[in-house]
From TrEMBL:
Its main location: membrane. Keywords: Cell membrane, Ion channel, Ion transport, Membrane, Potassium, Potassium transport, Transmembrane, Transmembrane helix, Transport, Voltage-gated channel. This is Potassium inwardly rectifying channel subfamily J member 1. Gene3D superfamilies: 1.10.287.70, G protein-activated inward rectifier potassium channel 1. The chain crosses the membrane at residues 83-105, 156-180. It catalyses: K(+)(in) = K(+)(out). One of its GO terms (biological process) is regulation of monoatomic ion transmembrane transport. Residues 192-364 form the Inward rectifier potassium channel C-terminal domain. Belongs to the inward rectifier-type potassium channel (TC 1.A.2.1) family. It comes from Cercocebus atys (Sooty mangabey). One of its GO terms (cellular component) is monoatomic ion channel complex.
Length: 391
């Protein structure tokens, strides 16, 4: 009895040790070698493009400053806020120096010991600090009433008008850039999510590649259109190697691929027929393929009427052959439709042909079995029957 318990204990220790070593080996491989084994992808799962431009000429870089509005909008927030603060502080200090120069030239500063009946260009400017404060008051139209321009010199009046106009321009540009950055439809795209994996299974008697997409907001995307691009390296008949060659992939739902009623999660699918680039792939060779499937969803934001684009990508490791998505929409007792996002990317294994060609060959064989065939060598001859029986 004790020996049997000891054997069970040894078996348990061995199983736990093997499991621990497997997990440790998996962690080491993922931690130190996982990045080197990952496939290079042009579009990340969250839609960012993994591409860089090298050896760009200086003239081409100058174009970014010509289109300064788009350049500022595309900047990251930390750079945008740096430009925002620098623009205001720089303009205030620059015009503060000009106001100080006006007071210095007109001999309004205390070190010149102006007479009692001396009328300065600007009242109460006693140094560079007071000139900076007056510049700030002028540009942001605070106007404390302690410092003001007099009618003594035209230079101060011209400088006041010039700073007021330039201040409105700077204020409009920077505040408009901040507002446009906040309201960009790119943030609306964050509430559109795709399934983690794509699946391949039968749908309607056809072999299809399926992807699930959901709108996390109750507001709709108007005029939504969904499509895909298959990126792979191809060799032309002339021997030219094209890296990132783009092949159109048509995705549809049961009602088409345009003007989607995108209020609940949709399962879009691509029919793998003779014109599909997936037609010659099989379940055994899919993981060995070198491609990237990029899926795009274009639409118009209902609240702002701005267009936005959502995109994601799938590599061969993220395409599951022989699976379908688990249902996520149900109806409650109160009559409402409930979407369970816990099962959004959950898949269920189903019986699926291991290649599209096999499915079509099977259909052709079944169709031939239902049809009859004529034998051209068969000849029907008539036989005359005679009654040789005599009574």
């Amino acid at each position: 009895m004790n020996a049997s318990r000891w054997n069970v204990f040894e078996t348990l220790i061995r199983v736990l040790t093997e499991s621990m070593f497997k997990r440790l080996r998996k962690w080491v491989v993922t931690r130190f070698f996982g990045h080197s084994q990952q496939r290079a992808r042009l579009v990340s799962k969250d839609g960012r493009c993994n591409i860089e431009f090298g050896n760009v000429e200086a003239q081409s870089r100058f174009i970014f400053f010509v289109d300064i509005w788009t350049t500022v909008l595309d900047l990251k927030w930390r750079y945008k806020m740096t430009i925002f603060i620098t623009a205001f502080l720089g303009s205030w200090f620059f015009f503060g120096l000009l106001w100080y120069a006006v007071a210095y030239i007109h001999k309004d500063l205390p070190e010149f010991h102006p007479s009692a009946n001396h009328t300065p260009c600007v009242e109460n400017i006693n140094g560079l600090t007071s000139a900076f404060l007056f510049s700030l008051e002028t540009q942001v139209t605070i106007g404390y009433g302690f410092r003001c321009v007099t009618e003594q010199c035209a230079t101060a009046i011209f400088l006041l008008i010039f700073q007021s106009i330039l201040g409105v321009v700077v204020n409009s540009f920077m505040c408009g850039a901040i507002l446009a950055k906040i309201s960009r439809p790119k943030k609306r795209a964050k509430t559109i999510t795709f399934s983690k994996n794509a699946v391949i299974s039968k749908r309607g008697g056809k072999l299809c590649l399926l992807i699930r997409v959901a709108n996390l907001r109750k507001s709709l995307l108007i005029g939504s259109h969904i499509y895909g691009k298959l990126l792979k390296t191809t060799v032309t008949p002339e021997g030219e190697t094209i890296i990132l060659d783009q092949i159109n992939i048509n995705f549809v739902v049961d009602a088409g691929n345009e003007n989607l009623f995108f209020i609940s999660p949709l399962t879009i699918y691509h029919v793998i027929d003779h014109n599909s680039p997936f037609f010659h792939m099989a379940a055994e060779t899919l993981i060995q393929q070198d491609f990237e499937l990029v899926v795009f969803l274009d639409g118009t934001v209902e609240s702002t009427s701005a267009t936005c684009q959502v995109r994601t990508s799938y590599v061969p490791e993220e395409v599951l052959w022989g699976y379908r998505f688990a249902p996520i929409v149900s109806k409650t007792k109160e009559g409402k439709y409930r979407v369970d996002f816990h099962n959004f990317s959950k898949t269920v294994e189903v019986e699926t042909p291991h290649c599209a060609m096999c499915l079509y060959n099977e259909k052709d064989a079944r169709a031939r079995m239902k049809r009859g065939y004529d034998n051209p060598n068969f000849i029907l001859s008539e036989v005359n029957e005679t009654d040789d029986t005599k009574m």
